[in-house]
Amino acid sequence: MPKSMSENLNKELTKELSPSHQLYGKFAVAVARRTDNDDVIFWIDELNKYAVIHLTYSKETSSEFPITTLYTLSELEKHCRNISSIY
After folding, report:
1. How many angstroms separate the Cα of 30 from the Cα of each of 39, 41, 66, 85, 87?
2. Which of 2, 6, 51, 83 is packed most tightly, with the most Cβ within 10 A?
3. Which residues, other chains included, contact 62 with Cβ-Cβ below 8 Å and sequence gap of 6+?
């Protein structure tokens, strides 16, 4: 992923997170994104996990949005295989 794209996605995530969201205040780095939807994979160093986040492109006030699922590397690999078999 180009550095500028990663930086833009990092900024978007920061804008979207409400103080009650599980990732609020944590450093996140965008490492991949799907081109067919708004899902982005972020590395969350503090948690030592990857987060698959469905960006909403709006400021959220709920802890539920943006929808976020945390994965270890092996869990993320399995998730990506499952998703690719569906599409």
Report:
1. 11, 6, 15, 23, 22
2. 51
3. 18, 20
Q: Are 13 and 68 within 8 A, CB to CB?
A: no
Residue 83 pLDDT > 90: no
Quick: pLDDT tens for 23-51: 999 999 999 998 888 899 999 999 999 99
Q: What is the pTM of this model?
A: 0.90
Backbone angles phi, psi at 67, to 5 degrees: -60, 130
For residue 59, give both structure tokens. Answer: 């400021």
Tell me if 40 sits within 8 A of 69, measured CB to CB: no
Would you say residue 86 has pLDDT above 80?
no
